[in-house]
UniProtKB/TrEMBL annotation:
Signal peptide: none annotated. Transmembrane segments: none annotated. It comes from the Bacteria. Residues 181-338 form the Novel STAND NTPase domain. InterPro entries: nSTAND3, P-loop_NTPase. This is Novel STAND NTPase 3 domain-containing protein. It holds the Pfam family nSTAND3.
């Protein structure tokens, strides 16, 4: 028998559950049917059965005091609820709670509500509710969040890899997340699509709840013994851990197309890998893939990519746009956040005031993130009731101004330096690296005579925590993408701040796509003394755990941003110091940058000689980092010329395997698209001609490879005829 502690249900969820359980207990021929009411001031009524003679025939009250326990709940009943019940004077009073009740507890409740509670059977504690659920198991189908309350399910989720499970992400925090969630009709549709197609893409505006919906889906699969693999940065991470067997795997990639122009450009460069992996997942058993992205980002990528645009025609059944919520769901979301908030009771009462409650739920800028923002204790504890209402209205009427006000007025310059330092990394960063980078910014921007607080990093980190940043598993990131968007737009107009960010760089990792795009936009040069220091003390600019990746990054950066001839001695030294070149295929940006590096340094004898000594490793890693078939063949041609490779004498096993993989994925994806959309054989013939042409080029290079075209061995005339007929029928409809 499952043991539900009800910790994942909000107060309104519990009321609905108790109502359904009591109605399930009533005989079919009984006129009694309980109903619940919209969240709000209930005057002591959560459940009600009325007759024409007595409005309050049966009154039920549901109390969700699973954290407070019996003593706290009983005080509340004595001090507030007893008087409400006396005024109602119901014929029969029913009481239910998620608190575990002993016999003595039940008797005490019965006594204070005498004579309205007729017998002890009208009092339901946690064990009683569990017994009712066992008798009416179909209730689980209606109350989706209930099964999360099974402690074994929570434990299973907590032991997964979701969100880099941190030490402070305990059962309480997980249950709280689920209590916040309000199930929408879209959930079942997305769940069915994931089951059918093996992948889904959830889109929507920032803050609308894409991540929450995705996480709720992953929780289900974790409970079904799927291994969760949370993808951090690059779609190609999936390729490295995807098992071609019957093991259960679910991949989750939040914001998979990025959130700013630098990240979007990277995503566009990975389109072949993306489409290939989707194609592979669709064909496999027990593999699931969940993406989230902003709607505008998905539309931008589709517009700029011919292949993605063609493929998107087949995505209709797997792409879901999370948009406006119904009024009922908005009210439940707001109510859940009010109930869970640790802010002062007078502020809670203010939000519950009808005019302000309605203002929030009917506002065009309503979304789960905005609600979380105004109910977070850290954000609102400085307000009194009068200023809090102004804060709420301003937050919804102009949300960007709220970030601006918080950034300019509520934190000091040292806190802002920490945010700028975090921004240079452009991703979640190890807290120790962030501290060292921040200390360099402090040293750069202050004189020896400056008066600074003791331990400025800890002070700034503590001040920004949960309001601007979030700490997880010894890492730091921005609290949400909207803050990062604001900072990028804010700093983009401040060339002085950009220069300070660049001048105080401590790690090569800080020379991120974002920093490069900001400097290029304003034609800001990296200081020569900074680049020289990188060359002279390069070990201090790289991370120990990512040393080879950072050395490759450093080599490409120095080559592009230092004009002196002395750089070549440094580049030779770096090339010889790199042990593993794997980052050339795991890091898309490095793959692109290093191909440019190879071309630009080809005329220097010493650099070329150093590269030649590592030819096989470099070529293999560069090639398997390329997922587009035409680009892969072009790359092989360039590498053959650059390194003067004789592929007949080259160990080509890795290259052939990769070619086989990307050609297979390409052919499968195109075949699926053509089967659905081709109305003549022209495009099929063009694809076959292209594949044959590429196959000839590969063999001309000295590589022995035959492209398998069996997926395209179909009756395309018949397929085209059927598709054309269906197209005409759709027009007629």
């Amino acid at each position: 028998m499952a043991q539900y502690d009800f910790s994942t249900l909000s107060s309104s969820d519990l009321e609905d559950l108790v109502c359904d359980l009591l109605n399930a207990e009533v005989p079919n021929d009984s006129p009694i049917k309980y109903k619940t009411f919209k969240d709000g001031k209930d005057q002591g009524i959560d459940l009600l059965y009325s007759t024409e003679h007595n409005t309050h025939e049966h009154v039920g009250q549901v109390k969700h005091y699973y954290r407070t326990g019996f003593d706290g709940m009983f005080r509340k009943l004595e001090n507030e609820e007893v008087e409400k019940v006396k005024k109602l004077a119901p014929t029969n009073y029913i009481f239910a709670t998620s608190v575990d009740l002993g016999v003595g507890d039940t008797k005490k409740i019965s006594d204070i509500f005498h004579p309205y509670i007729k017998n002890l059977n009208d009092i339901y504690g946690k064990k009683d509710l569990n017994r009712l659920i066992e008798s009416h198991e179909d209730i689980l189908n209606i109350h989706y969040k209930l099964w999360f309350s099974d402690t074994s399910v929570l434990t299973k989720i907590l032991n997964s890899d979701l969100q880099f499970r941190s030490t402070d992400f305990i059962e309480y925090e997980l249950a709280k997340r689920i209590r916040f969630y309000v199930k929408t009709p879209l959930f079942d549709v997305v769940r069915d699509s994931l089951k059918e197609n093996n992948f889904v893409i959830i889109t929507g505006d920032p803050g609308v709840g894409k991540t929450t919906l995705a996480e709720m889906l992953t929780y289900e699969y974790i409970n079904e013994n799927y291994q969760l693999l949370y993808i951090l940065d690059d779609i190609k991470e999936i390729d490295r851990v995807l098992k071609n067997d019957l093991s259960k795997q679910i991949f989750y990639f939040d914001d998979f197309l990025g959130s700013n122009s630098a990240e979007i450009n990277k995503a566009q460069g990975s389109e072949s890998a993306l489409l290939g992996i989707i194609g592979s997942i669709k064909r496999m058993t027990n593999k699931k893939l969940i993406f989230t992205t902003r709607s505008i980002v998905l539309n931008t990528v589709i517009q700029k990519s011919d292949r993605f645009r063609r493929f998107s025609k087949n995505l209709n059944e797997a792409v879901f746009h999370l948009k406006e919520y119904s009024e009922n769901i908005k009210e439940k979301l707001l109510r859940n956040h009010i109930d869970e908030s640790e802010m002062a009771d007078d502020l809670k009462s203010l939000i519950e005031r009808k005019d302000l409650f309605d203002f929030i739920t009917s506002h065009k800028n309503f979304n789960p993130r905005s609600v979380e923002f105004i109910t977070s204790k850290e954000n609102v504890e400085k307000y009194n009731a009068k200023t809090f209402e102004k804060y709420i209205r301003e937050n919804f009427n102009n949300p960007t101004e709220i970030w601006k006000h918080a950034y300019e007025q509520q934190i000091d310059y040292i806190d802002r330096w920490l945010l700028s330092t975090l921004l240079t990394f452009n991703e979640r960063v190890d807290i120790n690296l962030l501290e060292k980078a921040f200390n360099k910014r402090i040293d750069y921007c202050t004189s020896k005579d400056s008066v600074l607080p003791i331990n400025p990093f800890k002070n700034a980190l503590d001040k920004l925590d949960k309001g601007f940043i979030i700490r997880k598993n010894n890492t730091v990131d921005f609290i949400n993408p909207s803050l990062k968007d604001f900072l990028i737009n804010y700093i983009q107009t401040d060339t002085r701040e950009i220069n300070l960010m660049v001048d105080s760089i401590k790690y090569i990792q800080q020379v991120s796509e974002l920093v490069l795009s900001l400097t290029e936009f304003h034609n800001i040069l990296f200081p020569a003394d900074l680049v020289l220091d990188m060359m002279n003390n390069y070990d201090s600019y790289v991370r120990k755990s990512f040393r080879d990746e950072d050395l490759i990054h450093l080599a490409t950066f120095v080559n592009s941003h230092f004009e002196e001839y002395t750089k070549y001695d440094f580049l030779v030294k770096i090339i010889k110091d790199i042990n593993d070149w794997e980052a050339l295929h795991t890091n898309y940006r490095l793959n692109i940058a290093f191909k440019k590096f190879v071309t630009e340094t080809n005329e220097n004898y010493y650099v070329k000689k150093a590269l030649d000594s590592r030819t096989e490793e470099i070529v293999n890693e560069l090639v398997i980092g390329e997922y587009d078939i035409e680009s892969a063949v072009e790359l092989l041609e360039n590498l053959k010329d650059t390194f003067d490779i004789d592929f007949h004498a080259f160990d080509s096993y890795t290259i052939i395997n990769h070619l086989d993989s990307i050609f297979s994925d390409y052919i499968f994806t195109e075949a699926e698209n053509l089967k659905d959309w081709a109305t003549d054989t022209t495009e099929v013939n063009e694809i076959i001609d292209k594949l044959n042409y590429l196959g000839e080029k590969i063999n001309d290079l000295g590589l022995s490879y035959e492209i398998n075209l069996s997926e395209l061995d179909c009756d395309w005339d018949e397929i085209a005829r059927i598709n054309e007929f269906n197209r005409q029928m759709e027009k007629n409809d």
